[in-house]
Write a structure and sequence with these properties.
Elements (H helix, E strand, L loop, with lengths): L18 H6 L14 H11 L11 H6 L10 E6 L9 H7 L1 H15 L3 E7 L3 H16 L7 E7 L7 H10 L16 H4 L2 E5 H13 L1 H5 L9 E8 L5 E6 L2 E2 H7 L10 E5 L8 E2 H4 L3 E2 L1 H6 L8 E6 L4 H15 L5 H18 L5 H14 L7 H15 L1 H6 L5
Parallel strand pairs: 1-2, 1-4, 2-3, 5-11
Antiparallel strand pairs: 5-6, 7-10, 8-9, 8-11
Helix pairs in contact: 2-5, 4-5, 5-9, 14-15, 14-17, 15-16, 16-17
The protein binds flavin mononucleotide and iron/sulfur cluster (SF4).
Length: about 400
């Protein structure tokens, strides 16, 4: 397998989180390119590179950047999303703890391109230790005079998983502590609509220095035609060596699991994989056999690449228990604004608990599918449709297990 370290280049270097060591290994070198390129030219380079957002949705980074006004008549902002609370996703913490200056360099380039003077890094509350490392890097960058054109502020919050952009934005820019959930009927503050803000994931921004420094063609030499570049795939569950390993898009999933993960733990057989964080449809071992890790291949088989956080399940995994675990998370995280989501997440969680407890009936399985259908496409954000995909994929692919667990009376 070809080694490709774009974002993880300094991960193995001791003390690369400090400015001195990071600079010795090329940190901030791409800023020289800002003497050559205008903001629009930087956006064009990102456009040519086909960089896609690495926070789960895979949207074109440049298309989002191009929506930011270049007129400069209103203050605009960059918000970097470092929430990653979705089970199975733990890649961004690697960047902020092992190479925080790469993120800061990416922020400076992005702010230059979108003409933002202030970037906010929204970080989940539990990442206290990582936040300390990131703050130390920001302090060093200020002391070194690197942040003269742009300010960078960290805001810690307790779980902005829900609602993507909206909660990350609100919590970051208002500096609220605690849960950012908007209560039903609560209005967003006026600035929310008046100030343009771009939200990108940590890894998306950390990919920018390589592209600006080396050019779009060098980036596109990795990956596939439609999904160029690399991703920090995270692997958890029943593998010998769980962890975060960068690989190019288009890599064979099984090769990845065997090469980096050392294969399935204790020589067991693979049963299923959730390919990109729990919001993606589960895959059977058969579906994984010839699968490549890229947006198109995953979409083709009715799942998605998401954040690239793979959860590997061996032959002994109880799929009902696995679904119950996921639904507990969704139930807890639903912000409650939309009825299908508010009611559906709790209700499906209860029904799966009933089946797990051997008290379920065939009607409960049908009801789960009905709830999933109600959650699909009828809500404000894609949270509920994701729950729907997960429920349907588990039941349709492992229905025999659900039926075998039903109450026999
Ligand atoms: C339910 C839900 C959860 C999300 N969780 C995250 C997250 O933890 N981290 C993240 O970067 N993006 C997350 N996103 C995506 C963000 O809304 C946003 O699109 C992303 O940060 C944009 O960055 P990107 O375009 O660089 O991927 C989530 C979206 C949804 C709908
Ligand atoms: S689907 Fe609706 S209720 Fe569910 S998290 Fe999104 S906005 Fe909140």
């Amino acid at each position: 397998m070809r080694e490709c370290k774009i974002v993880s280049k300094k991960f193995e270097i001791e003390n690369a989180h400090t400015l001195a060591v990071a600079k010795k290994h090329g940190a901030y070198a791409s800023l020289e390119k800002l003497k050559e390129y205008s903001p629009l030219e930087i956006i064009n380079i990102i456009q040519e590179s086909k960089l896609r957002g690495k926070g789960g949705g895979g949207a074109s980074a440049a298309e989002k950047w191009a929506l930011m006004p270049q007129t400069g008549d209103k203050p605009s902002f960059l918000v970097v999303n470092c929430d990653e609370s979705e089970p199975g996703t733990f890649k961004d913490r690697q960047i902020i703890s092992k190479d925080p200056h790469l993120l800061l360099e990416g922020i400076l380039l992005t702010c230059y391109a979108i003409k933002a003077k202030h970037a906010y890094i929204y970080i989940r509350g539990e990442y206290f230790q990582f936040q300390k490392i990131l703050q130390a890097a920001i302090d060093e960058a200020y002391a070194e005079g690197l942040l003269t054109e742009c300010d960078i502020t960290i805001h810690r919050g307790a779980g902005a998983y829900i609602c993507g952009e909206k909660s990350a934005l609100l919590e970051s820019m208002e500096g609220k502590r605690g849960h950012p959930r908007l209560k039903p009927k609560q209005k967003e503050p006026e600035w929310f609509f008046n100030n343009p803000a771009l939200v990108n994931n940590v890894e998306t921004i950390a990919s920018v220095p390589f592209i600006v420094q080396n050019g779009a063609e060098v980036y596109k030499a990795f990956g596939t035609k439609q999904s160029p570049g690399t991703l920090l795939f995270a692997m958890s569950g029943h593998v010998e060596r769980p962890g975060v390993y960068e690989a190019e898009f288009g890599t064979s999933m099984m090769e990845y699991i065997n090469h980096f993960g050392g294969g399935i733990k204790n020589g067991k057989k693979l049963k299923a994989v959730i390919p990109g964080g729990v919001s993606c449809g589960v895959l059977t071992a058969k579906e994984c056999e010839n699968l490549t890790l890229d947006y198109e291949a995953l979409r083709h088989i009715g799942s998605s690449l998401g954040t690239g956080g793979m959860i590997i399940m061996d032959e002994d995994t109880d799929m009902i228990e696995a679904l119950k675990n996921i639904l507990e998370f969704y139930h807890e995280e639903s912000c409650g604004q939309c009825t299908p989501c508010r009611e559906g997440t709790g209700w499906s969680d209860k029904l799966v608990a009933k089946i797990l407890d051997k008290r379920g009936t065939k009607e409960d399985i049908d009801k789960l599918l009905e709830i999933a259908d109600t959650m699909d496409g009828k809500t404000i954000c894609v949270f509920a449709p994701s729950v729907s995909i997960v429920i349907v994929s588990f039941i349709s692919k492992f229905r025999d297990e659900f039926e075998a667990a039903l109450c026999v009376k």
